[in-house]
Amino acid sequence: MNEPLHEKLSLLVDDRLDAEQTLTLLKTIQKDPHLQNKLSRYQIVSQTLKSDVFVSLRADFASGIHQRIQQEPTYFIPQRHRTGFLQKAALAVAASVAVVAIFVARSVDKPQAPISMARQYQPPQMVRIYPVDPRFNDYLQAHNNSLYTNALPHQPYATVAGFQK
Amino acid sequence: MTAGWKGILLTVLGCAAWIGVVSADELAAIQWLEKMSRAMKEQNFQGTVAFMKNGQLDTMKYFHAVDQGVEQERLLSLNSPMRDVVRKSGEVSCLFKDTKEKVVNHHPVDRSFIVDFPQKLDGLDKTYDFIVLSQEAVAMLPAQVISIAARDDLRYSRKLWIDVQQFLPLKVEVYNLSGEIVEQVVFIDLVRDAQMPVANSDLKDDQLVVKHIHQLRSEPFGNAPFVLKDLPVGFEIVFFTRNSMHKSDHPVDHLLISDGFSSISVYLEATGSKPLTGLQSLGGINSFSRVVADRQITVLGEAPAKTVEQIAMGIELR
After folding, report:
1. Cα gap B16→A136, rounded to integer Å
2. Would you say A159 and A134 are in contact if contact means Cβ atoms under 8 Å apart?
3. Is B243:B256 a contact under the CB 8 Å cutoff?
4. Residues in chain A whose beta carbon is closer than 8 A to a beta carbon of chain B?
5. What pLDDT is stored for residue A95 in this prediction?
6. What CA–CA distances, in Å, run from B187 to A83, A139, B29, B306?
7. Which one of A126, B18, B114, B268 has the minimum C-beta count within 10 Å?
8. What is the predicted pLDDT for the residue at B212?
9. Of the partner residues A142, A148, A153, the one whose CB lies closest to the CB of residue B85
10. CA triplet B63, B156, A147: central angle to 5 degrees?
């Protein structure tokens, strides 16, 4: 029973496991510390073989990324609606990357140069406006010439109400 | 001389030598930038440029020509909406070929489409470090990379890739505080053409619907109904004027300030039914709006969110 699991671990590290099996395997790994250690060793070997360089991550790498995402300002870029399948696949990949990152960070003793994450400045709550408020484009047009060099759907005299989709 | 004094002397000489090396490096970077500024104004050249600005990417054909001392830049879009944009004699016109409409923007500040570059570099070493980096190839041309690194977190850093033979800018990148690229202009190909004539659109104004905007005159900042109490170091007033905006005739006070590389606009107008408030972003552009009495204040520019908020919160009505 262990043999197929070891093979699946290897396939996971090489990114050759499909989304469904990845999720099942990750659930199993979550409950088994022995498998967690094995996965981290496979990850180290795989990375070393591929690049001759090994980069370890801090234990708070994933939480730091999450913190940075929380602090990201809101942009006007419209989001395309994804199908259900693509959403699930994206979640599966994100979950597997986060789990692997945590396991690798825990298992390595090498000192790592700190990744600068913290921002001293905490921006105020962003106001999400979609489509683009026309006044913003008026301000931009008076500010500089950059409005003419991008591919916004441009109506002369009127303000741009949205982005290309 | 005792060993102690020898040690002190060697340390002082070492520091002086190090300072000398750093100063020579900065001087060389500024010389590169000065040569580039001159080349941009004086040479005739053309190419294909990719612009990543305001969160959007577009490619355009670019032409720069000088005719009897008058400089002209022209951009032809390669993608819809088809635009023919010309900068000449202090005005920028944008011709929309599909609809045969033309907007003529009489902007009081004359700036190149390629890079916002100060008229003078004097005094900018207080807010930026100028560093010569390595050489790389851009558009198959050898280029010297110059770093313009901000000394504080109130402005963006930049890098310029300058053609080592003709000193023309081949690539410009602007970075936010996290080091991410928020704006990029890069030549995909570039040809210097001394004989290239100034080109004009084949459509005449009488065949187009033309609208002139921002036909304005600079006024003394003393005429402004507001004062700036918290101006970040290095920023100076460029112009103040009154504009009509938002498809109406109601006036909007417009103040432009700049630190040489980063420009920020301050707008003051009557509060409408739906005032803008808070922070908004578009690529590398941040804006912060607030309401004071019956006035809406908006500060917008190519600067970090912290900077536009600081300026906005420091505005007081006279």
Report:
1. 51
2. yes
3. no
4. 68, 73-77, 119-121, 123-127, 129, 132-136, 138-154, 156-159, 163-164
5. 66
6. 37, 28, 21, 32
7. B18
8. 79
9. A148
10. 40
| DSSP string covering B248-279 | S--EEEEEEEESSS-EEEEEEEE--SS---EE
pLDDT tens digits, A95-148: 666 666 565 555 544 444 444 444 445 555 544 444 567 788 788 878 877 667
User: pLDDT (tens digit, 9 = 90+) per residue, A2-25?
Assistant: 557 888 888 888 888 888 888 888
DSSP state of A29: H
In 3D, which of B314, B275, B280 has the Cα closest to residue B295?
B275
Residues of A in contact with B280 (CB under 8 A): 74, 76, 126-127, 129, 133, 136
Provide the residue type at B299 as one letter: V
Q: Which amino acid is at A38?
A: K
Residue A61 pLDDT exceeds 70: no
Q: Looking at residues A40-53, what average pLDDT do you find?
A: 70
For chain B, give me the number of helices (H) and strands (E)? Answer: 2, 20
Cα separation, B61 vs B74, whole angstroms: 8
Tokens 């102690």 appear where? B4
ipTM: 0.79
The owner of tokens 């298992």 is A107
Q: Is B54 left (phi over 0), alpha (psi -120 to 50) or beta?
A: left
* Residues in chain B, pLDDT under 70: 1-27, 108, 194-202, 214-216, 246-249
Token pair 């005299």 in the structure block, residue: A157
The pTM of this model reads 0.66
Question: With an 8 Å Cβ cutoff, is B40 touching chain A?
Answer: no
Cβ-proximal residues to A10 (8 Å cutoff; 6+ apart), any chain: A42
Check residue B161 and give its pLDDT: 97
The answer to whether B135 touches B142, Cβ cutoff 8 Å, is yes
